[in-house]
Amino acid sequence: MKKGDLTRQRIIALAAPLFNRRGFDGCSMHDVMDATGLEKGGLYRHFASKQELAAEAFLYSLDQAIKTRTDGLDHIPGALSKLAWIIRRFVETPGPVPGGCPLLNTAVDADDGNPILRKLARKAFADWKHRLAVIIAEGIQSGEIRRSTSPDQLANTIIAALEGGLVLSRIHGSREALKDVEASLALLLDSVAAPVRP
Amino acid sequence: MKKGDLTRQRIIALAAPLFNRRGFDGCSMHDVMDATGLEKGGLYRHFASKQELAAEAFLYSLDQAIKTRTDGLDHIPGALSKLAWIIRRFVETPGPVPGGCPLLNTAVDADDGNPILRKLARKAFADWKHRLAVIIAEGIQSGEIRRSTSPDQLANTIIAALEGGLVLSRIHGSREALKDVEASLALLLDSVAAPVRP
């Protein structure tokens, strides 16, 4: 990697927790200058705008979160166990970039403006839903999950409940709400499990 | 109501959508001056700080949302029907103050700082959970809901799934995710319903 690329990567990694914690409006290029020790000119040599840096910082935080939360998934057998594993990992593993879920933060931050971040968040949610829906569809295919189950509907519900549970847990400073969500999603997964043939 | 109180109420009502849309950092006292037509001195005569105004604006938005979403609930008979009604109302009725759910916005905005707003959001979530848990406990009492159901757990799950569904719906600009959540919560409510005695 060239020195310029290394500096760029370093700026992104240092800016990521700032944007994740404070949001787009709450984090200034001055804050990034303070965190990186770079002058304004040095920063703008690598990023044309705060918008561009914020987008890269979001993609970096997202990538870290996905890695942390899917690493090891391939070894889990069966669709329902995979879903339960993904839910538990989300509930039990704190995000690697401080400030909570970057996807949630960016979505709430950008839902009334900032079309670039909004588009990135929309794509990230769609990708996440797709990853879960594929697992659910495989479970239907294999006979593990009831045929009447809608993969998209269940996928959206898992994502919504986890993200909402995270909001509650962070505001209360306790994992209780996420644990409650995990227990309820387990009930929901039970209810979509195909009856075992005698 | 005195003229001063009327002015204060008018400022709060005009500031509420600004804070709800843009968050605490994204909304300046200048924005409020523009929206109200008041000078800085006029604004600070009514509110000691931006913090105080933001807190009042949050409580105003919250109050409007609660009114919109609970009006008529008393006429619904039975705990499970009450819960389904609350869920449908949340899914189908847009919040009265533009910018999405004030509780969600404030919670995500304040979870890394702003202790006053954080405390208000925490209390609002606790109150909401309590209102739902009371309905669930009454359903257990009446034999409508299984005794093994935890009122707090189910209440937290409903709140988490609705708020998370709202995040997804707002970012996608479509009500699909909230509809998905409604359908899944209906399955979950079915699974906690006590078996009908023959």
3D structure, described in words:
The first copy, chain A, has helices spanning 3-26, 29-36, 40-46, 50-70, 79-92, 102-110, 115-141, 151-172, 176-192. Chain A has 198 residues and is an all-alpha fold. Chain A is elongated, with a radius of gyration of 19 Å. The N and C termini of chain A lie far apart (59 Å). The relative contact order of chain A is 0.10. Chains A and B meet through α1, α6, α7, α8 and α9 of A and α1, α6, α7, α8 and α9 of B.
Topology:
The structure is a homodimer of 198-residue chains.
Chain A lengths: L2 H24 L2 H8 L3 H7 L3 H21 L8 H14 L9 H9 L4 H27 L9 H22 L3 H17 L6
Helix pairs in contact in A: 1-2, 1-4, 1-6, 4-7, 5-7, 5-9, 6-7, 7-8, 8-9
Instruction: Give the overall average pLDDT of chain A.
Output: 93
Total of DSSP H or I helical runs spanning 4+ residues of chain A:
9
DSSP strand count of chain A = 0
The gross shape of chain A turns out to be: elongated
User: Main beta sheet of chain A, described?
Assistant: none
